[in-house]
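Page 47, continued from p. 46.
Same chain as before, 371 aa.
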Amino acid sequence: MIVGTVKEVKNHEYRVGLTPESVHELAAHGHEVLVETGAGQGIGATDHAYATAGGRIVATAAEVFARADMVVKVKEPQAGERAMLRAGQILYTYLHLAPDPGQTADLVKSGAVCIAYETVTDANGGLPLLKPMSQVAGRMSIQAGATALEKAHGGRGVLLGGVPGVLPARVVVIGGGVVGFNAAQMAVGLGADVTILDRSPEVLERLATHFEAGAKTLFSSRANLAAAVADADLVIGAVLIPGAAAPKLVTRAMLATMKPGAVLVDVAIDQGGCFETSHATTHAEPTYVVDGIVHYAVANMPGAVARTSTYALNNATLPHALAIANLGWQEALRQNPHLAEGLNVWNGKVTYAAVALALGYQATSAAEALA
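Result:
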């Protein structure tokens, strides 16, 4: 199979779909790997490193899209990239389609086979290709929130850990999954006063056991959420419904109850955001203010630490990329029902139920695509 990767074109996105080491693995299995020149620049991987690994350097993304049977990326294809997709071509990347009707329509029109990292599952019901970036984003959310709390950035002027004689910042984490756990871990490590909200008693028990006195847990009822948000200096939105749009848990009315200069960090922004006042921002302009509350909603947070993120992501995505290249996408998905959960669009049809429901498409089962 001809496999290709391109330089990401989303604003301040420095990750890349394949590392030189991943290219080496694919080439060792007999596949031709096309790499757009400069694709690895953001992680310090030169064209020479890719060529040494067995890749073939090409001048443009257009050549990669024209020749590759499978294109491996990180972020969802931008409009110009979507226009280069062709029927039957495999796109293997993050898609986050539920809040993005324009992208979905273009992918449907292309006839491509679109496999989304974020909906691939594992035997335990987890999301193994989303997990590494959720770990990064959760940890980064505290760094970003701490910076946004500084007065020069519009915040309250509060140090997360405080100092002797001065109370630490109150950090509220909404959602106790991978993002929430990693955010809480960072905040606790910095000495903040941390409260984690979730609706699952099992998750709350696990978090309480892990953090002991280091963090408080609270059932996420409407009343508890409203009270916690009102008292917070920093709120981390870490809610995920796999493949679906995130619920709007913090309303605009709730902002009026918050302390002026408090900060909201919406890690769920890739799925539309879990704050009513959220809209996607970029690393170039990461924050904005609504009703005196600072919002951070960068849609590709892990891109800021591109080298760490790319290697963590490739550790998870490469085995499936190899399976698809070695077996063909249909046989790879037949043999691995967890990978089949990643199929979101095929042959002009939406094949992931949550996306179809969110955007008004008639869902086609992945089984039909594999028949």
